[in-house]
Amino acid sequence: xxxxxxxxxxxxxxxxxxxxxxxxxxxIVLIARTVADVLQIVCQRGCSLEFALMxxxxxxxxxxxxxxxHACYERLPILVTTSEDAxxxxxxxxxxxxxGCLPKPRHAALLTAAIADLSETHHQLAAA
Length: 128
Description:
This protein is α/β, with parallel strands linked by helices. It is about 50% helix and about 20% strand. α1 (about 10-20) packs across α5 and α2 runs parallel beside α3.
């Protein structure tokens, strides 16, 4: 079975960046544009998701959604991308369930590396 990845983003250019970062993996990207879509996907497919990538600013809405996703399926590795000037968001993102947080990358290679780190950490935690 192909791995499934949840992407929450309102930026179609970021969709393309993720597709490029995952090229060759065969992963199926489930794109959610609304909070309701994210929660529905996590509730229905949480066990079959490889990871989630949430692209948002550090506002209350994004952190609340992150916290809700983590509460629904806490084993789901979540990678958060933020605007470049949102460095203060990292600690709050980790406190709300993120396993990785980085400024929104502009190149697929940076996103590929972050996904690899997230996957490696997830597999190490699962084996422990």
